Amino acid sequence: MTECVVITTSVAGREDAHRVAGALVEERLAACVQVSAIESHYRWAGEVEQASELLLTIKTSAERALAVQARILALHSYAVPEVLVTPVIGGAADYLDWIAEQVRPAS
Predict the structure, then answer these.
(1) Bridge partners for 5 per DSSP
(2) Which of 29, 31, 36, 43 has a beta carbon 3.0–4.6 Å from 99's, enabling a disulfide?
(3) From CA 88, how far away is CA 95, in angstroms rounded?
(4) Is 60 helix (H, G, I), strand (E, B) or coil?
(5) Dist. CA 17–CA 40, nearest whole Å
(6) What is the mean pLDDT of residues 8-18?
């Protein structure tokens, strides 16, 4: 079974979400990207802020994680985008195998 990870990033709106998610799946860097509406509260430039954002939950293999991170950073509109990589310690074997198959480079 291939080691999988979940990567999260948040974006400002639907256009950003579609651009990032579409590129990651099209380029076989991610098997699936889920987009969820969230409200974020954070400190930025010395001020407490809040914003409506979209959270991208990205499923990929551990070996593709650095490439996913680089692609997110290249596509992202934020000065300091969130990119968090979380290892998957278990799950349905068929689903984890599907993720691995989807992110293999096309031959």
Answers:
(1) 60, 87
(2) 31
(3) 12
(4) strand
(5) 16
(6) 97
